[in-house]
Amino acid sequence: MGLKSLVASVWTTSDKVIYRPPQVYNALTAIFNVTGPVLVKLCGLWATAAAGGATTLATTWNGVAGEAAAVDIGTGTLVGEVVTIPLNVAAVIPGSLGAIPMTIALLYPHGMIVGTAPAGAVGVVNFTFAVSTWTGGIFCVYQKLTPASEMVLA
């Protein structure tokens, strides 16, 4: 294996982290754009301010639900709370001030392949915040499945 192909292999197979800085959310928001297929391994939110009341969250990953249904992430949310998206249409979004175990019991899969849109189209990751406002940052750990694959802020 030549140096060029080794570098390409390492670049493609290493985990990438994308972070959307804190802002106030209160509606359907395009969070990330995906070009080419990526394997999303983990996605979550980090509250940086108290929620403005009851706030629900539902996510779609290029049209596929990231959880079973919209879940309340606002009522009682404290600054510093982490919420994770299970990336499974049968699971529920958990949140915690301590730690969130990524267990089979919580129905976490091995990830979700995203960005397999029609040729030339960009896959979109949408988060729908409903009812009130939620403030925080959003993070995602992913792996490129082709050298040209990419996940960027929408």
Compact description:
The protein is mainly beta.
Task: Describe, in plain words, how this protein is organized in 3D.
The chain contains 1 helix and 12 strands. It has one helix spanning 3-13, and strands spanning 15-25, 28-35, 38-47, 56-61, 64-65, 71-72, 82-85, 95-96, 112-114, 123-130, 134-144, 150-153. The longest helix has 11 residues, at 3-13. The protein has one domain: Sandwich (Jelly Rolls).
As a percent range, the share of helical residues equals: under 10%
CATH architecture: Sandwich
Q: Work out the number of β strands.
A: 12
Number of helices: 1
Q: Which structural class do the helices and strands define? A: mainly beta
End-to-end CA span:
36 Å
User: How would you characterize the largest beta sheet?
Assistant: 6 strands, antiparallel
Oligomer: single chain
% residues in beta strands: over 45%
Topology of helices and strands:
Blueprint (H helix, E strand, L loop, with lengths): L2 H11 L1 E11 L2 E8 L2 E10 L8 E6 L2 E2 L5 E2 L9 E4 L9 E2 L15 E3 L8 E8 L3 E11 L5 E4 L1
Antiparallel strand pairs: 1-11, 2-10, 2-12, 3-7, 3-9, 3-11, 4-5, 4-6, 4-10, 7-8
